[in-house]
DUF2236 domain-containing protein
Amino acid sequence: MDSDDLGLFGPGSVTWKVHAEPVLIVAGLRALYLQALHPRAMAGVAQNSDYRTDAWGRLVRTATYVATTVYGTTAQAEAAGARLRRLHERLRATDPVSGEQFRVDEPELLRWVHVTEVESFLGTARRAGLPLTPAEVDGYYREQRRAATLVGLDPETVPGTAAEVGEYYRRVRPELRMTREAAETAVFLTAPPLPWKLSLPLRLGLNLGPPRWAYLGVAGTALALLPAWARRMYGGLGLPTTALSADVTVRGLRLVLAALPRNWREGPLQQAAKERAARLAGAPARR
């Protein structure tokens, strides 16, 4: 029964502990900056995605997918993974270097997206101040192999410890490049068009400086949270934010978000999952 199903992870998992952090909004942006450095992966996105015309819609769809895999029931997570696999299996792109046509669901591309995403989630949460033991860090990567299977990856081919993630990055770095598409994507991510509800006041001649500057600050923090080798690849595209100031900023942001009402910082899937867990434990869900 769905009412008794806690999904792929559950309340005792490291995954629930990490993804309870609202500051992961910064992690999602960090992952996108990192993913753009892979020419083949970037080509797959640029040639098949409407991210420039529907940036915020795509962001919402991605966030909903992640929330479904983390907090949805097993059936919901598997259904979301099946939809994504069906979408990917029919998409093709052209390699920007060789001119070869390739499938966007090639395992090496899926693995790159998966690793950069989960490493960004974990790394951002830790730098924001979430205390995790080395065993919990490795536990998170092992748990996330379950999410990797949903997109069609063999879990045994996915890094399952911090050491394996570090080795994976060392192995893939020679393939990374600052291509024209990566640079254009970085600029777009740093200053995207505002959502309609925020852009309308601007069109009416009203000043809406704070949201734009707030987003720019988040983008600068996401860039500064990248690994040193990735920051060097971006060079002058990055904002003048050091890794140390990024740590201070993301810790401050975590404190601000933690002060918000719980129903503001928890989505419906997370709330529903906590309610199911509370029912099974015989205790009321916290609000």
